[in-house]
Amino acid sequence: MENLIINILGIFILIWIFKSLFFKGNLQTRKEFHKSNLIGSKYSIQRDNGEDIHVLIYENENNKNNGLIVVGHGGALIDGDVERSDTFCDTLRKKCECMVVSVDYQKLGKNKPPYQQQEFIDTVKYFINNASKYQISASKIIFVGFSGGSYLEIGAASILASQNLPIKCLFSFYPLLDDSIINLTDMGFLRFPITVISANNSVENERIETWKNHLASHNVSFEHKAYSDAMMGFIEYQFEEYSQDPAFGKRLKQFDDEQCMMAQASMMWLENEINQQLNE
User: Fold this and answer.
1) Which long-range contacts (CB under 8 A, 24 or more apart) does 89-95 make?
2) Lower CB count within 10 Å: N or C terminus of the chain?
3) pLDDT digits 0-9 by tens, 25-74
4) Residue 3 and residue 40: Cα distance in Å, rounded?
5) CA distances from 117 to 63, 65, 112, 121, 196 (A)
6) SS3 162
7) d(CA 190, CA 221)
């Protein structure tokens, strides 16, 4: 079963990457981002089979919810950096009063899928096995992902569910789009609530509505929260890791007060949704 899920996701990822690289000419990646005043604590999860998994941990001494949020950064699997989500993760830690872990999964240049999905799976298993140490509950694990990171989390969560280790829910910001989520649903592997957050992309929004209708027919909880006037990446752009980086200069010229207000509203909504899930 696990291999079948991996094969489904792997095929669609490789097709998407091929189209992105060779039909759109998107061969350049940004220079790796490192933050001098990093908030998260670097930690390496050792594995018997495979390289160590590098994560950033955001512990909350008052983890009253006993929750764990696992974050998958964006970047379409070829770009993006775990440290660029530093303030975002710390904000969730504070506002949701729980622990946050951000996975520094390997890019396609180093390893091909399903390697990255296994990194998420093994990260979750490590924290479940050490639940008492970190004061977390295995029944209160929430995934939050962006773009490629969200795509990986959907696959990882499906495999975990097949191993009787279901996550609480998944929040997916502008995920990579293909039919894998439909196929996983048809085969009974996707059994966890999903909320997809989208921006100003009519093609993406139409595809997400197709997902929503299909999952509803299989009694899978699926919500689509569309910010039709927001630019792609809007929720991340409110944080200093983006606002202070010249590499995002052109994009940030479009990030005006209206965009900032939508980003802040989306962040407040996300915090409230996670708190509701952890307090159920």
Assistant:
1) 89/39, 89/40, 89/56, 89/58, 90/39, 90/40, 90/58, 91/239, 91/267, 91/271, 92/58, 92/144, 92/270, 92/271, 92/274, 93/58, 93/59, 93/60, 94/60, 95/271, 95/275
2) C
3) 443 455 677 888 999 999 999 999 889 999 999 998 876 778 999 999 99
4) 33
5) 27, 26, 10, 6, 19
6) helix
7) 10
